[in-house]
């Protein structure tokens, strides 16, 4: 019989105590020190912003993008990319005297490696949890949403090339900045 070791425990701020044998934990994801040093950050070193316009609360001319802001979506490269794309267009329009505002919907898109040569692909925003379906071409894919497949894994591997040769040089990607419902299936239990 294996005896349970209980000498270790995690204790929460409200004094709940959970014993464990093996603890796998993820450290608190804090923002950068320079955000704290700027005086713009909250207690997690993120700049509080309007979640759609990315404008820092209380300031007309300060915007925070990517890992620096506190919007309720993933801290991910795809989020930083989409925010930057929308922000750059709006900034260019304003500099040319045209009215424009950033309208970020929380769009995030991530491959998630699952092991065994398979990966998931998730595509979601503030209002829509990851759904099953095909991506980026509705019905065709070639990637599958929310399902571990080998093709998704190879898509993740191929993304390395896309990163260096398309994203870094700033070439536009044929993927919409705002999340699309095309190709997504809403399961009945979610729809009802
Ligand atoms: C280990 C790891 C794995 C990840 N894997 C993934 C993944 O698979 N997919 C995904 O989508 N995302 C992933 N992410 C998250 C992704 O890397 C970040 O969300 C993304 O890089 C944020 O972009 P950013 O431009 O906001 O910040 P950053 O990429 O952090 O850029 C900030 C830049 O500011 C510079 N800087 C800092 N201080 C100063 C200063 N005082 N003056 C001037 N410059 C300064 C830094 O050097 C840095 O270049 C991962 C992150 C980590 C740490």
TrEMBL record:
<dbReference type="InterPro" id="IPR052541">
    <property type="entry name" value="SQRD"/>
</dbReference>
<protein>
    <recommendedName>
        <fullName>Sulfide:quinone oxidoreductase</fullName>
    </recommendedName>
</protein>
<dbReference type="InterPro" id="IPR036188">
    <property type="entry name" value="FAD/NAD-bd_sf"/>
</dbReference>
């Amino acid at each position: 019989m294996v005896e349970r070791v209980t000498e270790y425990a995690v204790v929460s701020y409200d004094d709940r105590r959970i014993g464990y044998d093996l603890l796998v934990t993820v450290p608190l994801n804090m923002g950068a020190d320079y955000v704290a040093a700027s005086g713009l950050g909250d207690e997690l070193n993120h700049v509080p912003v309007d979640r759609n316009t990315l404008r820092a609360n209380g300031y007309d001319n300060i915007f925070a993008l990517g890992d620096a802001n506190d919007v309720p979506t993933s801290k991910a490269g795809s989020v930083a990319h989409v925010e930057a794309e929308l922000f750059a267009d709006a900034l260019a329009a304003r500099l040319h005297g045209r009215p424009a505002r950033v309208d970020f919907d929380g769009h995030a898109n991530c491959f998630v490696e699952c092991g065994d040569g398979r990966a998931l692909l998730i595509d979601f925003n503030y209002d829509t949890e990851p759904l099953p379906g095909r991506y980026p071409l509705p019905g065709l894919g070639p990637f599958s949403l929310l399902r571990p497949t080998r093709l998704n894994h190879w898509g993740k591997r191929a993304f390395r090339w896309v990163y260096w040769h398309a994203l870094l040089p700033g070439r536009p990607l044929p993927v919409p900045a705002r999340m699309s419902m095309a190709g997504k299936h809403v399961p009945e239990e979610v729809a009802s």
